[in-house]
Write a structure and sequence with these properties.
Shape: globular
Strand content: 15-25%
Strand order of the largest sheet: 1-2-3-5-8-9-11-15
Order of helices and strands: EHEHEEHEHHEEEHEEHEEHEHEHEH
Number of helices: 11
Largest sheet: 8 strands, parallel, barrel
Number of strands: 15
Length: 335
């Protein structure tokens, strides 16, 4: 099946953290190679200070141990690193991987990690302003240009981006979030915009943002802010749950009941990451772009519907969902 006119082809990425649930950092390379075998387009490494691998060191190892996968960060917490350092690490991985690197970067959002590390956690507006300055600096350095920049948070005086990346004019940049301000910022600077749900200060995703209608509203914000460049932007989203079943309605009933009662199965990647600010109806639950429930064919049809109604085409899955979701990747590959 070919890609419908006006829509972008599907792409799929698996997040690989190197945490204890995946077998630790020692299984990182094996898991990435499995993703390559399953037909995923890329793997991404998140950026947290807890139980996971460091993103750039991990991607350097994956650059040498994979051949086709796109390799990215999803996403770097901008306040943890100066953009000049990020540019240096990024172009190094791009060269080592033969031009397969993609830089995902965000404003940082888990306050507890900053508090534990003794790193200042600025207000939301300040972190967004800081991120915008970073994006301006990164755009120049990732092109191999000499950058002069004086802002509130960063001052760069004539440093040149090296090594020169393999990709031209620069490696792609991805930015995303759930709030209007971060989505508008992403629309202004990013090649890929990750359309996420809003979240609580503690990092839990808001259940009310899981609906198709709420997702369409967020995409509309990106479209309005991007203007003419919207046609060149790839829209990304992460699936909070993947459940292969031949009885999707019963699974939905069960999941809704457990979430409402606060008894969600802790073995599910998404269960302890959701704030049920309002319950979803079964129809909303089953139509949610962020919940993939059903047979592989049913999930594939659901993703086709999501793409047709929102433009979202680049789906990501959590590490432990990679194998379960692989039959869907096989069905939709090339569409």
């Amino acid at each position: 099946m070919t890609t419908p006119e006006g829509l972008k082809p599907f792409k799929f990425a698996a997040a690989i953290e190197g945490n204890q649930h995946e077998g630790g950092v020692r299984k990182l390379i094996k898991n990435a190679q499995l993703a390559e075998e399953y037909g995923y387009d890329g793997v991404v490494v998140p950026d947290h200070l807890g139980n996971q691998a460091g993103p750039f060191a991990a991607l350097g190892a994956l650059a040498a141990s994979t051949t086709k996968l796109r390799l990215g960060t999803s996403v770097l917490a901008n306040p943890l690193r100066h953009p000049v350092v990020v540019a240096k690490e990024s172009t190094t991985v791009d060269v080592l991987s033969g031009g397969r690197f993609e830089l995902g970067i965000g404003a940082g959002w888990i306050k507890s990690e900053f508090d534990q590390a003794g790193i200042e956690f600025l207000s939301g507006p300040e972190r967004l302003a800081q991120l915008e300055e970073s994006l301006i600096i990164l755009d120049g350095l990732l092109r191999g240009q000499e950058v002069h920049f004086k802002g509130k948070y960063y001052q760069v005086d004539g440093i040149k981006g090296t090594p020169r990346p393999r990709q031209g004019p620069r490696p792609p940049i991805a930015v995303g979030g759930g709030g209007p301000k971060i989505l508008r910022l992403a629309a202004k600077y990013a090649d890929t915009v990750s359309v996420a749900t809003r979240s609580t200060p503690g990092g839990k995703m808001l259940m009310s943002d899981f609906t198709l209608e709420a997702t369409q509203r967020r995409v509309e914000i990106v479209k309005e802010a991007a203007g003419e460049r919207f046609k060149d932007i790839t829209l990304n989203w992460a699936l909070a749950a993947v459940v292969l079943t031949d009885d999707r309605e019963s699974i939905a009933d069960m999941a809704i009941a457990m979430l409402e009662q606060g008894e969600a199965d802790k073995n599910q990647d998404f269960a302890d990451k959701i704030e049920v600010d309002r319950p979803l109806t079964k129809e909303e639950f089953l139509n949610s772009p962020y919940l993939a429930i059903g047979t592989a064919e049913e999930i594939a049809d659901q993703l086709r519907k999501t793409r047709a109604e929102t433009g979202l085409s680049f789906a990501g899955v959590f590490p432990t969902q990679m194998e379960a979701f692989s039959p869907v990747v096989e069905i939709l590959k090339g569409e």
